[in-house]
Amino acid sequence: MTLGNSMLIPILPEMKSSLELSQMQVSLTITVFSIAAAIFIPVVGYLSDRYSRKIIIIPSLILFGVGGLIAGIGPSFSNNPYIWILIGRTIQGLGAAGTSPIAMALTGDLFKGSEQSRVLGIYEASNGLGKVLSPILGSLLALIVWYSVFFTFPAISLISALLVLFFIKEKSNRQAPPPFRKYVRGLLGVFKHEGRWLFTTYLAGGTCLFALFGILFYLSDMLETDYKIDGIMKGLILAIPLLVMVTTSYITGSKIGKNLEKMKRLALLGFLFKTISYGSLVFVDKLVPFLIILALSSVGAGLILPCVNSIITGAVGKERRGFVTSLYGSVRFLGVAFGPPIFSRLMDWSKTGMFLSIATFTLIVGLLVLLLLHVKGLDGKEDKSTKFHYNYM
Q1: Helix orientation angle between 287-314 and 231-255, rounded to the nearest 10 degrees
Q2: Using CA atoms, how far apart are residues 370 and 362, in angstroms rounded to an integer?
Q3: Architecture of domain 3-391
Q4: Alpha-carbon distances of 365 from 55, 121, 298, 304, rounded to whole Å
Q5: Residue 83 or residue 255, greater confidence
Q6: Nearest Cα to Cα of residue 100 among 120, 75, 74
Q7: Where is each Major facilitator superfamily (MFS) profile domain found (predicted)?
């Protein structure tokens, strides 16, 4: 899933030039993918609860690969390649809906307690590792031709599908959720009683992805237009903030256990780092100081995302975990979807206004985390407060 967007970031300026697109049009190649995924994720979340995670993941990976193939064939053979790219990217988004969010639910199924937090930290780190490697891989493939990136998706999807098929073993004592109406009533009960903290955690995760992909979109354009840097060097530079986020995510996931107060403190610290970073970038023009200060926002994201993952996965019962984590995946995808086009508008408006706006936004979300994030039953104890998801049938 991660490769679906990150690998395209380095090729966007060349795509824009080759197809004579506007900044907004080129940003739509990210947006249509993410919106399609966001819309379809709740559906596959319910189906994964109803049947099994693997039954959803494997066809989704195949669909993801087919979409990449269509997007790659368009520039190769069509007189109107942009339309085919958008069609292929939309199909890819539908496939991506059944990958990462369902994998998060599967992780919650297979691991418990502090081990669950540790593995979710690895999950977030591997998610980030895909982001680290993808701009480098995208830059390398662009040396052949910019649209060769799309042809890698079918191969990667096939390998992933085979690995899931043969190496993932779901637990056999799985219980199907209740009929759809009863299932929906239960979900409404969850959101009625726990909607405040769920909204806050969803917003926190979506904000991280929104800011990340918006900044990468800005940085990719800046490297070519202001610094005349492209090719593999551009990919390596784009990977720096992502590598910082990956490393922080892994360390955070291994340390937080099931301690909610620690998760909340780290998330608040993460939003403080992001606010300071984006606010400070207003005053920086040179590339090296820019990357150093930007890395502080990546540390912030690495602190926030594993904590949010653990809160959402640990506080929701297995019979609805697929839907609730998938809805969280939708919000993350929407963050990715809105990042490039909004940053595109902000770039046209003012660099200073762009960074101050984002810094203000992360500060507001941090305050919401401080005021609204109160979840019972995440201290690892099996008391009634951990079972709210069973009681609202």
Answers
A1: 40
A2: 12
A3: Up-down Bundle (1.20)
A4: 36, 22, 16, 12
A5: 83
A6: 120
A7: 1-377
